[in-house]
From TrEMBL:
Lineage of the species this protein comes from: Bacteria, Pseudomonadati, Pseudomonadota, Betaproteobacteria, Burkholderiales
Species assigned in the record: Duganella lactea
GO biological process: phosphate ion transmembrane transport
The name this protein goes by in its record: Phosphate-binding protein PstS
Subunit-level organization: The complex is composed of two ATP-binding proteins (PstB), two transmembrane proteins (PstC and PstA) and a solute-binding protein (PstS).
Family, similarity comment: Belongs to the PstS family.
GO cellular component labels: ATP-binding cassette (ABC) transporter complex
Pfam families the UniProt entry points to: PBP_like_2 (PF12849)
Keyword Transport tagged: yes
Amino acid sequence: MRLKQLISSLMVGAAAVMAFSSAAHAADMTGAGATFPYPIYAKWAEQYKATTGNGLNYQSVGSGAGIKQIKAKTVDFGASDAPLSAADLDAEGLMQFPAIMGGVVTVVNLDGIAPGQLKLTGPIVADIYLGKITKWNDQAIAVVNPGVKLPAEEITVVHRADGSGTSFLFTDFLSKTSPEFKTKVGAATAVKWVVGVGGKGNEGVAANVQRIKGSIGYVEWAYAKKNKMAHTQLKNKDGNFLQPDDEFFKAAAANAEWTKTPGFGVVLTDQAGKNSWPITGVSFILMHKVQQDANKGKEVVKFFDWAFKNGGQAATELDYVPMPANVVKLVQESWKANLKDASGKAIY
């Protein structure tokens, strides 16, 4: 009798361990990469866990580190604001899809200048980051800011110290509007900066700008709003000075040719249109086409599928732009076509 009870007890215990292990396994999603979308990924993860019981550990380490980690297969997905080329994706056996859109803004720390008061253009910002414009009352800045009392203060440039998709978007915009910047610095996730101090992540740049009087930096719009930073207006391709706004991020994405771009690798900087915010970006998710752990792969896809269907309000509240329905459909079709388990069976 005791033996039967012992066996029964052991079987119940084993079943409990297996159930716990299975639940932990399902919840153990890991991702790493871009700091640009971190606020919305964190919010989605919180809501998803409350809804499904499954969690997500997302490391906000920058796009460069995220790309390295997914290539090394140390995470279930990587995130980058700089799209990988079709050749890079094929070489690494990766697929890529867009998850969220938003805007990058320039932020300043200037006494007497209200948020959104200062106007800047691509060529002016490029010359500041090239070390050619060194004071806030420079004539080039004064010309586009009539009536604004500009301080005779030295400019401290703040940039990213890590490999960053936000840096890619920022340098891509400056390269499109300043031939000299394109030649001397160029557009990439990591560049050789001419002047300035570095900060790690959007968080690091924001902290440095808040700490240093007379500084300028670039961060994702949600970070600027959350930290009550003084953003600037920016002049777009059509010559209009705009304040950052969700509708202007949407306007920049309106004419994107998703179907004609391999791996959905659309870059939305310096788009034409009177209401197009000039530094609009897409954050991309990277996954291996062959999922060695099919359960993990399925869970990642379930998470983003849930986010597309249920995460729109949270995205809007944090000043991101949800992916349009027609793009979501293309992404779902891409999952079906590209994501397989080790035996070649589709996981979505």
